[in-house]
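Thread title: Can someone regenerate the structure for this chain?

I was given the following input by a collaborator and told the matching structure tokens would be attached. They weren't. Posting the sequence so someone can regenerate them.
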Amino acid sequence: APLSDLRLPVATLMGSRATDQATFEGNLPSDAAVTPTPTVLNREITIYAPDGTARALNLAFTKTANAGEWTVAATLDGVAAGGGTVQFDASGVLTAGGSLAVTGGPTVDLSALTGYAGLTTVEASGQNGRTAGTLQSFVINADGTLLGSFSNGLKQALGRVSLATFANPAGLEKAGGSLYRTTVNSGDPQVGEAGTGGRGALTGGALEMSNVDLSAEFTNLIIAQRGFQANSRVITTSDEMLQELVNLKR
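Best answer:
Regenerated them for you:
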């Protein structure tokens, strides 16, 4: 996106989103009992309305007398919301009923179901809705991405810090306060993502240490002090010699 200031107000919101896709995965046992009472497996998942209201979606899988066949009945907040059947071949592979449309609700993906014997692992695996949430905290990734954590338990990218390189970094002009400005010698900034094109990575929550070598600076200080002392003695000696010349004239 175009470059702009990054602002993260405390009141930053993540809007709600209605669930339009839910997924069920796992295995429906092909050897489930049919008589005297058909096997019924109830599985529930929480989905969300457009305003973020939580709703309960239940799927009831019932074994039929037909080999490899199960009926699926959906209820939404306790109200019947459609149904269908899923069919597996003799190898346990799904051959029909890979999707279920829920009345007043999402489309349910059943394409990952299997029909092997001896295993009952069918479960709701996910949905794409959410409630609204407020920004709680954020972190900066190495590539400069600001990742916000919201009160609804989700995370969302809020922006990205850009970095720039220069053809001649030594040509930048000091502007004070650890700031620099571009010059003709430095060239124009080449703006891009951190970690690309020779740009460094970012570290969030870290304090940069001083880049001054104390031992070298102390050595330079001593050299400067000794140089000042030596120059002072030269001046003193020159003054004494001139004084002697004046005295000789007298």
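The mean pLDDT is 91.
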